[in-house]
Design brief:
4 helices; mainly alpha; 0% strand; 121 residues
């Protein structure tokens, strides 16, 4: 089987391009978050995605040749499911913040309740 040789600078270029795309996607996700809970959730989710990708590439680099393909199967099977779950939960948080903006903004302790017309709260 012939070996494919890739110039090291080509690999560095593509790795840098992938990291740049990831940084742009992370910033776009953070800017598109509406409320404080959604923004915190997006920040935690992006951090988890970066850590997961870095751990995967480290494990892939240090795993012997035939077993590294099993890591690829696990990565491409589990990571899309995690992204789908993240997007679903983010949408749920966004909808809940639009329904209950005052209560959600004050931590849900009831301090954000609107006073009634009679002066009672």
């Amino acid at each position: 089987m012939p070996q494919i040789y890739i110039d090291p600078w080509t690999g560095v270029f593509f790795a840098g391009l992938i990291v740049l795309i990831g940084v742009v996607a992370t910033l776009k996700n953070l800017r598109s978050a509406c409320g404080p809970k959604e923004r915190a959730f997006v920040a935690r989710g992006n951090l988890a995605a970066w850590v997961t990708c870095l751990c995967f590439f480290a494990a892939w680099y240090f795993t012997p040749h035939p077993y590294s393909y099993l890591l690829l199967l696990a990565y491409f099977a589990v990571f899309p499911m995690a992204v789908y779950r993240f997007c679903s939960k983010r949408l749920l948080i966004r909808r809940l913040e639009r329904i209950h903006p005052a209560v959600e903004a004050n931590g849900g302790n009831g301090a954000g309740r609107v006073a009634r017309a009679g002066g009672e709260s």
